[in-house]
Design goal:
This protein is α+β, with helices and mostly antiparallel strands. It has helices at about 5, 10-20, 30-50, 50-55, 70-85, 150-155, 220-235, 245-255, 275-285, 320-330, and strands at about 60, 70, 90-95, 100-105, 115-120, 130-140, 160-170, 170-175, 180-190, 195-200, 210, 235-240, 255-260, 290-295, 295-300, 315. The protein folds into 2 domains: about 5-200, Fructose-1,6-Bisphosphatase, Chain A, domain 1, CATH 3.30.540; about 210-330, D-Maltodextrin-Binding Protein, domain 2 (3-Layer(aba) Sandwich). The protein contains 10 helices and 16 strands. Strands 4-3-5-6-7-8-9-10 form an 8-stranded mixed β-sheet, with helices on both faces. A 6-stranded mixed β-sheet has the order 12-11-13-16-14-15, sandwiched between helices. The protein has a two-stranded antiparallel ribbon with strand order 1-2. Helix 2 runs antiparallel to helix 3 (about 30-50), helix 3 (about 30-50) runs antiparallel to helix 5 and helix 7 packs across helix 10 (about 320-330). It binds 6-O-phosphono-alpha-D-fructofuranose. 6-O-phosphono-alpha-D-fructofuranose binds next to helix 8.
């Protein structure tokens, strides 16, 4: 009997129940996920009250990506770091908004994990009330790593052990995997908890929906243009929100394929590897889908070499990714 039918299950109790199934579990995950849950409740409030509190619009500053920083980007970044900073098992925090990691404690002082995050992805859509979100990845840090925090996090022995996002849409939706399936929770404001609504979410194997910014088509490699021509001829529909969390959430629920390719002016693509493509790829794969960076290249097999590097992304239903891959292999 699924946990939903048994009783009202909060995110907290779900993760604790999961941990009880692993005798060696240390409680590390629930400790970190509870901090992310706390931060997301606070960010969700800020997003919902943005117009009222007039925190929309930009800071007049740019982030490490050279992108216009929205006021809420900065606020969300501070909220997450304030919540995570108190967790004694976190060694470092990597944020899209910060050039360098926030180092909290070394591996030998108990820093077993790094949390990588995009505090408010899609924030340029805030002024028009389009769904935005927080994306996070939890990485177990390699042991005995010397040198800079970058080494610590990019060390091949460090590996992603959990991933998720929070979509601030008509409701706050928390989608997470700790490597044992994908589970979805919705914030019940009447009790202030994320409650389980879907366990072991599976992405449909196919659906004729592609999600890509076709305005850049002239700058795509031929393979993507050939795929789009094939999709147009085969009855596909296009859905593109321009907010990765919203586009990936729809893809996870309805199926289809989300694509952000490399272009002539962005040869690595736009999306960042460590705190956008990597966590979303873990979720899509845990839900039975696929995520590639190029024909024959599983995205999670790519080893990052810098904190803010970008990577092309094709992720979604296994059959839909395969259709795209077929055309990319001809490039
Ligand atoms: P474009 C938002 O700025 C973001 O980083 C992702 O959330 C989104 O998928 C992408 O950029 C949209 O980029 O170039 O289509 O506006």
């Amino acid at each position: 009997m699924s946990k939903i039918q048994q009783n009202l299950m909060s995110l907290q109790s779900y993760v604790l129940a999961e941990e009880r199934e692993y005798p060696g579990a240390t409680g590390d995950f629930s400790w970190i996920l509870s901090a992310i849950s706390l931060a997301s409740k606070s960010i969700g409030n800020k997003v919902r009250r943005a117009r009222i509190e007039d925190v929309l619009g930009d800071m007049g500053d740019t982030n490490v990506q050279g992108e216009q920083q929205q006021k809420l980007d900065v606020l969300s970044n501070e909220i997450i770091k304030a919540c995570l900073g108190s967790r004694a098992n976190i060694g470092a925090l990597v944020s899209e908004e910060d050039e360098t990691p926030t180092v909290l404690r070394s591996h030998k002082d108990g820093g077993r994990y790094a949390v990588l995050f995009d505090p408010l992805d899609g924030s340029s859509n805030l002024d028009v009330s389009v769904g935005v979100g927080t994306i996070f990845s939890i990485v177990r840090l390699g042991e005995g790593v010397k040198g800079t925090p970058e080494d610590m996090i990019l060390n091949p022995a460090s590996r992603q052990v959990a991933a998720g996002y929070v979509l601030y849409g008509s409701s706050s939706v928390f989608v997470v995997t700790t490597g044992n399936g994908v589970h979805m929770f919705v914030l019940d404001n009447s009790i202030g908890s994320f409650v389980l609504v879907k366990e072991n979410l599976r992405i449909p194997a196919t659906n004729k929906i592609y999600s890509i910014n076709e305005a850049y088509a002239d700058r795509f490699p031929d393979g993507y243009r050939d795929y789009l021509k094939w999709a147009h001829d085969n009855g596909y529909t296009s859905r593109y929100i321009g907010s990765m969390v919203a586009d990936v959430h729809r893809t996870l629920i309805k199926g289809g394929v989300f694509i952000y390719p490399q272009t002539t002016d962005r040869p690595e693509g736009k999306l960042r590897y460590l705190y956008e493509a990597m966590p979303m790829s873990m979720l899509i794969e845990q839900a039975g889908g696929r995520s590639i960076a190029a024909a024959g290249t599983r995205l999670l097999d790519v080893k990052p070499s810098s904190l803010h590097e970008r990577i092309p992304v094709v992720m979604g239903s296994s059959e839909e990714v395969q259709h795209v891959e077929r055309f990319l292999s001809k490039d």
